[in-house]
Amino acid sequence: MPIKNKKRNVKQKIKAKLHPRNKHQGRYNLQELAISNPDLKPFIFINEYEIETLDFADPEAVKALNKALLLHFYNVKNWGIPQGYLVPPIPGRADYIHNISDLLATSNKGIIPKGKQIKCFDVGVGANCVYPLIGNSEYGWNFVGVDIDQTAIDSANKIVAANPQLDGKIKFRHQINNKNIFNGVMELTERFHVTICNPPFYSSMHEAQAKAIKKVSNLGKEKVEEVTANFGGQSKEVYCYGGEGKFVNTMIEQSKTYANCCLWFTTLISNVAHLDAAYKQLDYAEAFDIKILPMGQGNKVSRILAWTFQNKEKQEAWMSTLPQQEKPEIIKEEI
């Protein structure tokens, strides 16, 4: 039977630090990264504390940093995104992937599964394609990335095409209905080990702009009236009707239809206030188990909401067909 009112057992924990396997601990070695991407060098400067840094409110500087990070740590060449698209924080994206690896280990007798047999479904893959790039590099997983924006899919395809090691490992599908999450892009005969998602957070362009202006100001800029589009991302990337809460509830509702197609459904939850409605929706959908995976980067605290419709026996059956890992990594801490 599904576990009712699971929220009583998954209280949010504050973990304002990166996952221990995250390669982006501490300060960036910007000079070393500039060797990987010389375009980064013009953006490096010495601040008032005599520390080398970047202007993180400048999207071009962050894009140059991302290109360097992806090449230096993940062997991704020629990364880029169209003008005006979301510039993602690489450490946070890597943290999601590492937390998901731990989640899959809970269904695999504590062993982190690696290799192409692990199939992941990325909802809203974006023009940057960062989750699949990191997931394949770190764990060898295969991905299907879905997006409602054809330009984003074209950009992601271009990144994969520029990296022969990714051939056949990351594929894309176009979601043509903005009211659907899984409907229309996932087949009932398919099997995925996990879905991942960084949902649109805001409910309107006005709200997104207000938050982006505040973010720029917090980064030490003078007061501004508006921000450039590529700092906040495309409209489809940052806001949707009802915002994050509505998006996640729709995802949970549709996941019930695909209960036997996926082992774990997951999504980032930026606003903790959205959890109560998500728990109620998961109870209604009769999810068997619910987990909260806390994440933190600096002063920012976030979390991943994960749920499954499979009991423990079925979870182990899902993973039983995987090849035995030569050097299995055991997750000792229960998620």
From TrEMBL:
Catalytic activity: adenosine(1618) in 23S rRNA + S-adenosyl-L-methionine = N(6)-methyladenosine(1618) in 23S rRNA + S-adenosyl-L-homocysteine + H(+)
InterPro entries with a match to the protein in the record: METTL16/RlmF (IPR010286), rRNA_lsu_MeTfrase_F (IPR016909), SAM-dependent_MTases_sf (IPR029063)
A Pfam entry, by short name: Methyltransf_10
GO cellular component, one term: cytoplasm
Gene3D superfamilies according to UniProt: Vaccinia Virus protein VP39
Compartments (UniProt record): Cytoplasm
Record-listed E.C. numbers: 2.1.1.181
Gene Ontology biological-process annotations: rRNA base methylation
GO MF terms, alphabetically ordered: 23S rRNA (adenine(1618)-N(6))-methyltransferase activity
Record carries keyword Methyltransferase: yes
Family affiliation: Belongs to the methyltransferase superfamily. METTL16/RlmF family.
Protein name: Ribosomal RNA large subunit methyltransferase F
Native organism: Pedobacter psychrophilus
Lineage: Bacteria, Pseudomonadati, Bacteroidota, Sphingobacteriia, Sphingobacteriales
